Amino acid sequence: MADKYNRYRWARWIAKDRPRLRAFIKLTPVLFLAGLMMISNIPVLSEFFGFSLDILIIAPLATILACIVAWLSSGISVNRSITAAIDNVKEMQLVFFILMMAYAMADVFMASGVGASIISLSLRLGLSARTVAIVAFLVSSLLSLATGTSWGTFAATAPIFIWLAHITGGNIHLTMAAVAGGSCFGDNLGLISDNTVVSSGIHRVEITDRLRNQWAWATSCLVLTAICFFIASLSLNNAPVDGSSAIASIPADTWAVLAEERPAAVLLLRQVEVGVPLYMILPILIVITAAFLKVPTLLCLVSGIISAYILGLFAGTITNTSTFLELLKNGFSSAGSWVIIMMAWVGAFGGVMAKMDAFRPLSRLSYKLSRKVSHLMFWNGMMSFLGNAALADEMAQIVTIGPIVRDITEDSVIGPEAEKEKLRFRNATFSSALGIFGSQFIPWHVFVHYFLSVSAMIYPLAEFNFASMVRYNYMAMISVFSLLFLTLTNLDRFLPNFGTPKEPIVSLRAELPEKEDVI
User: Fold this and answer.
1) Residues 6 or more apart in contact with residue 220 via CB below 8 angstroms
2) Where are the extended beta strands (E) located within 201-287?
3) What pLDDT, in 10s, does the model give residues 305-321?
4) Which of 12, 26, 80, 202 could form a disulfide with 358 if both were Cys (CB 3.0 to 4.6 A apart)?
5) Helix 373-391 crosses helix 19-41 at what angle (to 10 degrees)?
6) Centroid of chain to Cα 210
7) 79-91 pLDDT, tens per residue?
8) R_g of the chain computed on alpha carbons
9) Which of 181, 172, 171, 180 is nearest to 221 (CA)?
10) How far apart are CA 444 and CA 429, in angstroms?
């Protein structure tokens, strides 16, 4: 008995005599993870410290530190920490399968010509300086929805539409911002976006249910943004030009850069150049329809894969079944080689942090700052935005801040389970939307660095900087402001399925429940 007491004497001293120190020590793994992510994602810090690490290295290191801190601060044995970590990862098994299918569908869509058909359709309309920005925005929005990748969408559409803006005499920076904003649309709403899938998994909501919840808000932002681009382009020339000339005008240096940075974008552009049947747009429409019909997420993805395979055989973009199976294998391996492993380690980290109740101080702070549930949800949104600014990476924000706001809501709010589910939807939307669109307001964010660097490489005739991009990024402005404002004021109830429950249907607890000390 004396040995056991001596073993945990350090933890008992902290618990009894230094509660604030104990609370701080429990948060050190998060600070450690956030610090390494900041150093690795912000070039100035990487150069200063002389290293840059992937989250596949950072997350295991943070998990090990969390186990040590759990033992020191709460007397939790390593075996119990490992059990908590494994139990938390087990809850993500369905998300792992969804991610594999999502990556497979993205590869099949890209190779079969689904993405190319979207661009081809737009180019047949005949574009002018007045219409190039709004068409660029709508096409990149639909393409990002079909492919689930903002970076891939930007690499595929920016060369076409920026050079079209050059040919027509349009506004280059307006067009670049239109492509950037549209590229982010599907990354927040797409069924196959890793940001959507991961944020839904962390907040424990069904992806298709969540998409139906936020669709009205997302499409409202889309329409309002399109109107802004239309108004901003009214003073420009309206003489139409042949859109296919844009691909022919792309310089050889740009092709070389794209081949090195985004080979899939080169494949898509070559498909547009050669031409694909317009019926190849049907698979994405089938997936969207299935989601709204409340078909389970995995079946939605399977329907998209099978329809793209069958139509691709008719179109000649998929030559045989062996090619199709190879695409599936590549998609599965792409998901397994990074995002699933990353999620497993982050899940393990979250399990250990939850075991020692590390986020209790943050729960108390949000609770004290809030008089109503809408206030609490607003602060959850702000925490997601600020976490994104600190980490300079939207996925790091999702996996780091997501569990914190999830636990804060669960600890602080009481009400019917169906109503609390709506709060989980909103937290999931905070994680992805404020991670993706919020990144556009953070000069050192990896998203901004990528968009600006690619733009400069594909169109060296203009100078691209943060100010020129954010000035016209109406999609980011409308999305971030409306999401926070509607949440705080409860005006979100005027959008179908998007409203969060009002009091007294849900309410804040009279006081936060005290959890039994582990020691």
Assistant:
1) 482, 495
2) none
3) 999 999 999 999 999 99
4) 26
5) 50
6) 14
7) 999 999 998 888 7
8) 24
9) 181
10) 23
